[in-house]
Design brief:
Layout lengths: L6 H13 L8 H15 L20 E6 L4 E6 L6 E4 L7 H5 L2 E4 L17 E2 L5 E4 L14
Parallel strand pairs: 3-5
Antiparallel strand pairs: 1-2, 2-3, 4-6
Helix pairs in contact: 1-2
Length: 148
């Protein structure tokens, strides 16, 4: 099994462990923990933030996300935090009014990304930490420059 932190080695390990996940009748939290453990194993550690002159495209994994498509729950784990937070998307009203005003919901993190602003030990359901903010504007597409 390859053991370096190069992306190819990391993804070979992830592929191997994915094929060996426990199958069958397991609890939801065990399934999430299994997938998260594989993703953390494939993550680029943050042991050194300086750019490697020999491999300038290597950078630390800043966060990991999981999504439960059946239940509509989105999980987020910042690499600099031992905690996992989640948002139950079914508990959010995605109203037409919000999109017309170009407002969106976000989690604001401390500058180093280690925790939710004002909540250094936040874990679990983070719906109460969502903040409404103006979203970014998309650039208009220049269709004249697109060739058929």
């Amino acid at each position: 099994m390859p053991g370096s932190s190069q992306s190819v080695d990391r993804f070979v390990r992830a592929s191997f462990y994915t094929k060996n996940l426990i199958e069958g009748n397991i609890k939801e939290n065990e399934a999430l923990a299994g997938v998260l453990s594989i993703m953390r194993n494939a993550a680029q550690p943050f042991v050194n933030n300086s750019a490697d002159e020999e491999d300038p495209n290597t950078s630390i994994t800043q966060y990991t996300t999981l999504s439960d498509q059946e239940k509509g729950v989105f999980y987020f784990a910042a690499s600099r935090s031992p905690f996992v937070v989640w948002i139950d998307l079914n508990k959010i009203s995605f109203s037409q009014n919000a999109s017309e005003n170009k407002m969106g919901l976000t989690l604001e993190f401390e500058e180093n990304g280690s925790s939710i602003k004002g909540h250094p030990f936040a874990s679990g359901n983070a719906i109460d930490y969502l903040v409404e903010k103006k979203t970014f504007s998309f650039l208009e597409a220049n269709m004249e420059s697109v060739s058929a």
